[in-house]
Model the fold of this input.
Amino acid sequence: MKTIEVKGISKNFKDTRALDNVTLTFKENRIYGLLGRNGAGKSTLLNLISNRLFPDSGSICVCGEPVMENDRALSYLFCMSDQDLYPEGMRVEAAFQWSGVFYPDFDMEYAKSLSKKFGLRLNKKIKNLSTGYASIFKLIVALSCNVPFVLLDEPVLGLDANHRDLFYRELLDAYANNPRTFIISTHLIEEVAGIIEQVVIIKEGKVILNDSMENVLSMGYCITGPVAAVDSYAAGKKLLGENVLGGLKSAYFWGQYDTDPLPQGLERSSLDLQKLFIELTNA
Amino acid sequence: MKIKSVFYYQARLFCTPVLVYFLIVIGLYLIGCIPAIVMKDGAEQTIQFSGFDISGVIFIFIMGLCSFKPSFRFFIGNSISRKSQFWGTVGSLIALAAVMSLITTLFSVFFPLLTNYSSFFYIIYNAAYAGLDPKMLYTSVPFLLTCFLWTFLLFLAAAAAGYFLTVFAYRMSKALKLFFFIGVPVLFVVIIPIIDTYLTQMTISHLLVKAVVQSMGFAGFPPNPYIACITFTGITVVFFVLSYLCIRRAVLKEG
Done:
């Protein structure tokens, strides 16, 4: 089974602890949402997996092989980041050709067809691309590489709504035609909620949640009603957060919802991923 | 290992600058030959054309300097290990040095046809070939082989030095970089000469000259270019080993 195994990874930048003893496994053929607030450690984790950085402690294996300075393990993954890693003066088409040299399964025809769909001109220099088109260019490379693990760090940075929609559709299409693992790190939680299967939430360098989307959504719920009634309901339950508006209070809970009828005046609603994320990372 | 891909990429990068460089050299040579062509017989004896091999050393040093940072970012972005990057780049620099020294040596054969040409190798080791007609020398296979070997190793040492400097600079912090690139020249141009003049009574200068004379094969008579070949090889190995030590833990930096 093809997996990325992260074991006890820690990483410090001077006196900032970016990742603290992180252990998790990315399984094959799934779409992961890697979520966290700014500075939570998402990009650091992706940079460590792709061996762009070295961990202070712990190990990372891709398909059973240590990733550190290992071309074979590294060839199983492609990491798209917001950094500009292409040489000045290189044109889009030349970059596709070089991707074909470095990734033997790179699908040039597919890359060209995606470029056409997104309106990316092949003869344009990469450094002259707008932020949105630079992201599109990198996304096209990522989707065309045909590697078992595709790491996408802020993939839709600068993309307009139409291009974001097109990207999500193309990603699902690529996933259906050639299943592989996508790890998407993003702040646009509402947008990716519909496509991710597994949620990983990082807070202050620690993984606080790693579960299927289905389980995660079933574990969070909201109770709304008069302040006193909600407070009484909340006793003994794991409270994530609360809002008070006038005499009404909304409380967000984490845990299995009990099936007993609710006390008079209280209403239950489910939490969407974004609300759950906000409450989990605020707490 | 993706050494072949790295080699291919780096070699492709070198193609255009090398082509431009040699076109400029040939262009300068042809411009210099115009009087010989116009003045007819004997004019080639009055036209001196030499020393462009030194520009080759500077050129390949700059190629070494340019062969790390942009490529490193590109290779890291394409999931290529630092080890493969290093060996692929070393291979490409060896190939570059070989091609450049081959062309430079071939110029030694053709340039004397129209001008009074002396290669840099001949200028400094002519005592080793005393009594031989320089024009005959440039068609002598043993001489050309020695010239090629010496030029190749000199070029390779220059490329290795350039490569090391750029990798070393990449690993340094901004403050250390400033300290190093100002401090080292100041040390050699100001501090050591002052110490040597006022404290050590020129002992350091004499030792340096002696080291250069011995390492370049001028200690005995006739001079021995093969000693210089050994020195260049040593310099190359040292710079490549230091470069490897720097690159093996290099991380991707912002910007």
In short: The interface with chain A takes residues 1-2, 5, 8-9, 70-71, 73-74, 76-84, 248-249, 251-252, 254 of chain B (CB under 8 Å). The mean pLDDT of chain B is 90.
